[in-house]
Amino acid sequence: MTKSPVYKALNKRQQVWLYDREKWPTKEEVNSIIKEAYEVTPSKQQFMPYKINIIGPGDENQSEKIKIWNKAVFNHHAIEDRAMREGKIKDSIHLVNRNYQHIISAPYVLVFESRLCENNKFNQWGVDNDSHFTEQTIESELSQIDSLISFECGLFSQSLVGLALEKGIDVSFTSCFPKNPSGWQDTTYVNRTPQMIVTLGYGSYYRMDFMKRTNQVQDDHKPPYEDMINWVDVTKQPADSKTFKNAKDMWHYDDKKFTEMVIEKSFGGELEINKQLEEEKTK
Amino acid sequence: MSKIYETFLKRKHVIEYDKDNIPDKKVIEDCLWKAWHMTPSKQNYYPYKVNILGPESKFDDEKLKVWDKAMHNHHNVEERALSKGQINQSPKKVNKTYQHLSDAPYVIVITSRVVEPGKTNAWNQKCIAEDGHFSEPEFEDQINNLAQATSVEVGLFVASLTGLLVEKGIDITYTQCFPKDVEKWHDLDFVTTLPLLTCSMGHGKYYKKQWMEENGPDTENGKSNWDMDRKADFKDVINWVEDTSGTTDENKTEMKRRLNISKQDLNIGIND
């Protein structure tokens, strides 16, 4: 039996199909766990280059949630249509997928999007006095760091899941929606690349309930652990194993001085840093 | 006090790992298994692979190659910014925040993963056969289309792993600076698809926080690098939407129609 509180909490998560429409967490409770998730989630250079737009539980917000749900459903159908055109599936049936139902019934719907940031004092000092390049502050560079932003949204969300589940609040995800902001022009709040949709509330019907009722739990298993986790064994490299090219070839740098410096640092640079750090520690 | 909050708050970015105190491989294996077990994935596909370089000396060169990727990519990005006039100089310093990759006992490179059609689970196979389900992770040409969603899932997995490791007093540090072009990884045989994240695990000996606290313009008067390196404001990141645009009557009718179909679908369901 594991004693890990993290495992116990996070392992409880279930994908919600329907949320309880009679009872939901207060805005203060939700804001409190979001604030805690914000405090514990790290971000490269402290930028947190994403914005979380929250649609609350009021009746006035219901049409907005239906609008978001609609985007998931339409996107699902658009992907199927494309796959059919490419010959990857035989038919595009346009079923209304129940996996998106949580968006409509959730009291709280969170839409994550990329965010244009401002430098804090430390980053600004680096920009002014060094070669520090802060992509998060330049509109045209945001697309270059899209995978970073997505990764950080995932980090935030899993912290949020743990904190919410501790309080008995369910969290569900959807990553099927138009990825281009132009597909969100009918909203006032999504203006940059949307990253993910997250819902919060008290679940009343779960995907797992359906799978259990229809005796299909065993059919919907994860891939084997070994397919995902690969302890690299360098003694078993393939016969056509690629040789290490030098940095000049790999990076196509033309400047002779620079390439020499880079090659030198490829093997040995890490020792230079260790030396610098040892000196700093003894200051 | 929330145990989750306390645990996650402890994570710190490592600059240098303790080479004399290396976490047992069984402990790392246990954390990886639990992270795999407790992290969700869309339709249970898990379209990513976690490649781990262990603590044995035979992996030293491989770790240096990973470190090399981060450093060169950093310089490459600087060069690009300089050429576009976005910065004034590109001194190509060796950035100490990547140091963890070269000396960590455990280094991870997460890559995208194409699911073998024969390994798609029975539920998804039923959906493919009966509902026209498009099984994107089975297609290599969909890797880039899925990259954003896969990166979110990598974030979920790594957050789970972080919590489990930190509970055991083990540090984990992330680096997202590396070439996204798989060709640039040709010298590492296990990287054959889109790289998504690099990170390292072990017992930290010297942390970024320490360095930040000890350095800066005027450390004794609250002007250390740490004092200046504040997070983005909460209000800039969190937006409680108050002003919505509503929807048109035409759209409302269509939505109601779809909503009704969906409600009916919930009652009968696939494979009932």
Q: Can you walk me through this structure?
A:
The complex is a heterodimer of chains A (283) and B (272). Chain A is of the alpha+beta class and 283 residues long. Chain A is 42% helix and 13% strand. Chain A folds into 2 domains: 5-224, NADH Oxidase; 243-281, no CATH class. A 4-stranded antiparallel sheet of chain A has the order 2-3-5-4, with helices on both faces. The radius of gyration of chain A is 24 Å and the shape is globular. The two termini of chain A are 47 Å apart. Residues 244-268 of chain A have low confidence and may be disordered. Chain B has 272 residues and is α+β, with helices and mostly antiparallel strands. Chain B has 10 helices and 7 strands. Chain B has helices at 3-9, 25-38, 60-83, 99-103, 122-131, 143-167, 208-214, 225-228, 234-237, 249-268, and strands at 14-17, 48-53, 106-112, 171-175, 195-202, 204-207, 238-240. In chain B, the strands form 2 sheets. Chain B has a 4-stranded antiparallel sheet, with helices on both faces. Chain B has a two-stranded antiparallel sheet with strand order 1-6. The radius of gyration of chain B is 23 Å and the shape is globular. The model of chain B is unreliable at 268-272 (pLDDT under 50). Strand 7 (229-231) of chain A pairs parallel with strand 2 of chain B, so a sheet runs across the interface.
